[in-house]
Amino acid sequence: MALMQLRRSILGRSQRALGVRLARSFSSVSEPPLRRVCVVGSGPAGFYATKYLLKEHAGARVDMLEVLPTPFGLVRSGVAPDHPEVKSVMNDFDKVAADERFRFLGNVRVGEDVSLAELQQHYHAVVLAYGAAGDRKLGVPGEELRGVLSARTFVNWYNGHPAFRDLELDLKQAETAVVIGQGNVAVDCARILTKNVDELATTDIAAHAVEVLRKSGIKKVFLIKFLSSPVEIIADVKDSTRVGGIRVEKTKLEGEPNQQRAVGTGEFEDIPCNLVLRSIGYKSLPIEANAPFDNCRHVVSNDHGRVVTTSSSGEKQTVVGLYCTGWVKRGPSGIIGTNIVDARETVNCIVEDFAAGNYLHSESNTDEDLDGLKAVEKLIKKRNLDKQLVRWADYERLNAEENRRGELVGKPREKVTSVTEMLEIAKSAN
């Protein structure tokens, strides 16, 4: 009897020990190590990177920083207002934002309110997804004349981007517009200039744009596409500060198949016009003066999403814990969906690096180091105590107000175009 009790006792201890080991084993599988990631930019590139980070790494905690009080980047300020089906992708991004492992902080300019180096001190990884805030120029005489704009400027204006709301665009006396380019943005610009304004007024187009377009005198729009090259923008004969026309040279293709290039024929044509929109490409800019950047290609230097630098000897070195995705990674190409493949590639690199132990290790031992966003907020407030930061709940107040205003005038939303007003609406009631 005593022997049997001893055996039961030993067996019980063994089972309990095994249970502890199994519990620890399952715990280590279900609870991977915490990894804090900061995503800079809240457009499609940033949200898709966040989506797949949260999906592929259960320990990931993502904090997203955005320069504006509003998220969604070009989905809000770049997609044409008469293409609401494209904007529906915001519903997917709302689901990402609902994840408890995600946090948003708007009205933060990296490089000014907080530095890239400071972000690297408080996160295991930083993902640059801030898009392209610049545009390419033609490089021809007369490009500085009034009435010559980038398509990016025009698009941001009619979509209500705060930085472009006060653009002086007088179309009353204009009759002819010329759009240089053959991409989707060029076509959008031409369509907005000629579309029935009553139809546009039922979209989420900015109210100030509707007011100007109602008074527009534009009757004709020329799209300069293939085999034509602008060589000069001509001043108006009555006002030398304004555009009065554009001179284009007809071109032809020369060279072997797949290696052809357009060459001038010496044949020119002048097109009288009152507005010129150049739609020849966006370009990214460095996020701050010393940040890794390829000034020739206008992208962040990278290898499949891992940011790299080049030494004086020409050797490329990976910057541990720093990544990029979207236009700042590949250049301004593709559609919104292109960012999915792009983000997956970058996220795969991040997950691989986390598994290999290649991530940023903070030198700080403060409590804030356990929470990157609290550390960032503390740094920002130290520099500017009155700086108002926008969290997701704050943005939702603004979103609800825009929807309410839109409903009153028969629109899906009436965008608030002033940052000051945005912040006032977003301010917590507490």
TrEMBL record:
<dbReference type="InterPro" id="IPR023753">
    <property type="entry name" value="FAD/NAD-binding_dom"/>
</dbReference>
<feature type="binding site">
    <location>
        <position position="327"/>
    </location>
    <ligand>
        <name>FAD</name>
    </ligand>
</feature>
<feature type="binding site">
    <location>
        <position position="45"/>
    </location>
    <ligand>
        <name>FAD</name>
    </ligand>
</feature>
<feature type="binding site">
    <location>
        <position position="110"/>
    </location>
    <ligand>
        <name>FAD</name>
    </ligand>
</feature>
<feature type="binding site">
    <location>
        <position position="74"/>
    </location>
    <ligand>
        <name>FAD</name>
    </ligand>
</feature>
<dbReference type="GO" id="GO:0016491">
    <property type="term" value="F:oxidoreductase activity"/>
</dbReference>
<feature type="binding site">
    <location>
        <begin position="182"/>
        <end position="185"/>
    </location>
    <ligand>
        <name>NADP(+)</name>
    </ligand>
</feature>
<feature type="domain" description="FAD/NAD(P)-binding">
    <location>
        <begin position="36"/>
        <end position="286"/>
    </location>
</feature>
<comment type="similarity">
    <text>Belongs to the ferredoxin--NADP reductase type 1 family.</text>
</comment>
<dbReference type="InterPro" id="IPR021163">
    <property type="entry name" value="Ferredox_Rdtase_adrenod"/>
</dbReference>
<dbReference type="GO" id="GO:0005739">
    <property type="term" value="C:mitochondrion"/>
</dbReference>
<keyword id="KW-0560">Oxidoreductase</keyword>
<dbReference type="Pfam" id="PF07992">
    <property type="entry name" value="Pyr_redox_2"/>
</dbReference>
<keyword id="KW-0496">Mitochondrion</keyword>
<dbReference type="InterPro" id="IPR055275">
    <property type="entry name" value="Ferredox_Rdtase"/>
</dbReference>
<feature type="binding site">
    <location>
        <position position="66"/>
    </location>
    <ligand>
        <name>FAD</name>
    </ligand>
</feature>
<feature type="binding site">
    <location>
        <position position="254"/>
    </location>
    <ligand>
        <name>NADP(+)</name>
    </ligand>
</feature>
<feature type="binding site">
    <location>
        <begin position="334"/>
        <end position="336"/>
    </location>
    <ligand>
        <name>FAD</name>
    </ligand>
</feature>
<keyword id="KW-0274">FAD</keyword>
<keyword id="KW-0285">Flavoprotein</keyword>
<protein>
    <recommendedName>
        <fullName>NADPH:adrenodoxin oxidoreductase, mitochondrial</fullName>
        <ecNumber>1.18.1.6</ecNumber>
    </recommendedName>
</protein>
<feature type="binding site">
    <location>
        <position position="334"/>
    </location>
    <ligand>
        <name>NADP(+)</name>
    </ligand>
</feature>
<keyword id="KW-0521">NADP</keyword>
